[in-house]
Structure prediction request, 118 residues.
Amino acid sequence: MVAERSVSCSATRRSPFYCFGESHFAEVRQLFAARPPAGTEADYEARLEAMERAVALLDAEGLFGAGDERRDILVNVEVMPPDETNTARAARLNPPDAEGGAFARCASGKTAVTVPIT
Prediction:
């Protein structure tokens, strides 16, 4: 069972990119709302995989920068409550040298960039 929740971008933010471009996702939210809830584990996994592919395609187009700029950004598709699959997706979606720096900044309490896909 997948819990549905709404995200308010007026919430306290840790990153300047939290909900960045939120207004551009109105059509996507409508499409998700029109779908029946993920009733099986296969449905749930298919949705996560689609979101991961979308972020990977955006990365390939350069949305998150290139070179040193890209290594400074950590992107992910996350589930709540968090589990080990979040880390696996982060490893797949980010350059190897971005992982250490971004994860280290998160652990130290400094702001890292996470693009929420809800």
Observations:
- The chain is about 50% helix and 0% strand.
